[in-house]
Amino acid sequence: MLNTLKNHPFAVEAFFKSSVVLSYALPQEKLAPLIPPCLQVDTFKDKFGFVAVAMVETCDLRPAGMPAFLGQNFFLIGYRVFVRYRDRAGRSLRGLYILRSATNKGRMQTFGNLFTHYNYSTVDFTEKSEGNTKTISSTEPQLLVTYQEKTDGEDVDLPEGSPFATWHEARKFAGPLPNTFTYNAAKREVLIIEGVRENWRPAPVRVLEQHVGLLDELGLGEARLANAFAVRDIPYRWEKGRIEKWEMPS
Fold first, then answer.
1. Contact 15/60 with Cβ under 8 angstroms?
2. Whole-prediction pTM value?
């Protein structure tokens, strides 16, 4: 029964007050051991894979159809790998594989781990603003990001060492992607959760300082910041999870 509950058994709605996502580039072979065999690393130029760190101020999270005032407000930090999955119909689906999730609310940790496989923990979280400069930080795992949002008419350079030549290229690996995947190895089942969003117009941000402790913990300390985008005021919905059997290719 508990395993069934964790399979995202109902659609969920929320409102993203703000979302900042940093994507880090690595050789694809570094990420392959972190994902299940049913998935492939989604690559750029058949060389680079990406880990995204999403920092989201979430409001009114609740089962779809419930009034917004019954929802939960919390801060989310999600660590994801960009992946692809070939489904039973032969389609190549882009999506994300969750490495770990953190929140500032114990209640969200409890319900998140009851209804998903996203490995929630509760962290000490702080957010500071000075004019156009903002800092987000947390502990266990350590995270520190200081950034500036783009003002009208301002150009923002890509991070030094980014594999992308333009922000248009970088946008393809900015998230969110249409699907999130979980794999049950014992049953050889893939859980697919589709995300639906409105008015998603990400704007580049200038990152002044960044440290992601989880990358070091996973042996990914060589990762290079590839892009950073922000959005505001986004209605979001996760559909009920669907499951399909996966057979290892012969």
1. yes
2. 0.93
